[in-house]
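Objective 1.3, modelling of assemblies. Example input:
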Amino acid sequence: MGGMNGGTIGIVGGGQLGRMLTLAAKPLGFDVVVLNPTPNSPAAQVGAKEIVADLYDTDALAQLAERVDFLTIEIEHLDAGTLEKLEKLGKPVNPSPATIKIIQDKLLQKHLLKLAGIPTADFTEVNGHDDAVAALKAFGGKMLLKSRHGAYDGRGNRLIAKPSELAEAFEYFGDSPLYAEAYVPFVKELAVDLARSTTGEIVLYPLVETVHKNNICVEVLAPAPVNGREAKNALKIAEQTAKLLKGAGVFAIEMFLTKGGKVLVNEIAPRVHNSGHYTIEATPTSQFEQHIRAISGLPLGKTDLTVPAAVMVNILGERDGPLELMGVEDVLALSDTHLHLYGKSPTKKARKMGHITVTANSLHKARKKAKKARSKLNI
Amino acid sequence: MGGMNGGTIGIVGGGQLGRMLTLAAKPLGFDVVVLNPTPNSPAAQVGAKEIVADLYDTDALAQLAERVDFLTIEIEHLDAGTLEKLEKLGKPVNPSPATIKIIQDKLLQKHLLKLAGIPTADFTEVNGHDDAVAALKAFGGKMLLKSRHGAYDGRGNRLIAKPSELAEAFEYFGDSPLYAEAYVPFVKELAVDLARSTTGEIVLYPLVETVHKNNICVEVLAPAPVNGREAKNALKIAEQTAKLLKGAGVFAIEMFLTKGGKVLVNEIAPRVHNSGHYTIEATPTSQFEQHIRAISGLPLGKTDLTVPAAVMVNILGERDGPLELMGVEDVLALSDTHLHLYGKSPTKKARKMGHITVTANSLHKARKKAKKARSKLNI
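Predicted structure (tokens):
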């Protein structure tokens, strides 16, 4: 503990989020230790010390806690119970394990939102085939069957449009507890990154649009191209949601904008989030620095856009095999284009290998250039 | 070699400059190896691999070269002869060892500038007491006696105002080869960071004012508060100077602005430089990313100011002893204030422990806030 300067941050998970948290923590004077299932994690490559163990390894979690002053996470699919015990032993854990526990269970998460009067898609628990058939009928013939736990980037979601599709879906999910959500014919997906300090202060980043393909985020547009009323409403709902959460840190609120202009909360992420990577170049305080500030009791930083527009595109792996990176020179030949590679190898289809952020005078220009930049890269 | 993604950068020296180069290199897909005389260098703390050896250790330099694709430096006081040999064996070394050799010898450097018609203070070689007395007379009774080699941050400079001060100065310098420079009663010190690509393209960063105290840089003001004619002249001279240099990378040109509005080149630094730290927050491409781009043959990035004003203040150690950092929370409570700690321990009087950059709508506001921020910190 103690660290080289200001203290030591412990992160459960050492992927790209842990890496960017580490890059932000070091200049503020923190040491970083990550717990990661494989060695030479993206975070370790930028100077985080590393405990190599399964994220559910109770001993490894205790060992991590012992070595650090502040404990946090880069992934919500982990052993929240153990984190809760560590918190009770006096170790600061943020976000609160109680919040992580609720968010881990998407059905519980939805109940929490509903109870607070926050608009969401209709949902219901599903215990078996009969529940599912009833839900499909109640939701007008189109719904998502979802695993309650452990799913992200669309893994663990099935779109159901007729009862005959249910058998295959139940086989796919196996024994996982499930719930169903009414299908929302949204026109846009929106997100707001926000931070809560240890004293309960909340700051919101700008509203962004997220664009998904095959359930994976591929593009983020800041600010979201929506009208003023929609933006105001989405930010208000995000703030209401933030007030339900316990503990400090950055959270992301993912939302749907419906055809009728209604905003529904889709999901809460209790951590720094892909929808907030643009904040590195486009705001005074990146979401990563903000999270480090929040969990260590430092004051929160400013969150306004410092450029007219920013667009982030993910760099997803294009094939399976050893890394053969090509085209970096063509990407960097484009002005105001910022490359962030995560140091992952091998490359895998749809694996998040890095991202590119472009700033510009308009969203249109930023988007065009970001797509061009992405097209130059082979990975 | 090869690196995790794009290749491996080797840096001779792993101090704060090597650290910030590493922080910039990693997201572009490079691995980094540094050669540093002590373990756990500032660069190693952010993920550079480390060879611990003296910077003049020929075997260690060869070992470094063998492990990397691109070799560079963060300090010019090193074994340029060995670098030249490595370059001849086919390893890309930037900046060119030939340029480093000339810059290492401040007298040679001055001759190079004079030969090219670039204005400098008058200077002359000094071999013994008689030369010094003659120089003092020729320079109007006030001069700097300087060591030709191995001096920076004012170490190795003596101001001489009367012949009776020479004996003590000669004792101080011992056997070091010396030269003398006319004392320039400057009104400001200026600097320009610039980059040369492997193809000889040159880009200039904005002109800045550097403020020194006890011969150490304490403050950098961007843009320099000078009139248009002075700025134009200084940038022109910096560009002329850049054209004399060989090899790729970032260089800094330090200059004097005299009472009469003349600009004289004081010194060339063949590397990223303290006067350019503000580029991290205030330009689209930091000098560190720019250097990595330049030495690896990638296209250079934009260098214009993206904010009206930026001020950098150095965080110099205030005492000798183990690090006890205090006041980080007060620094971060100030908006648009960016803290960069270097991970050094112990603290030492006048040791460069970190820096703070503040951006603002005016130089006056940035300067005021930067001073306030620095005053909050104890180190």
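Chain B has a mean pLDDT of 95.
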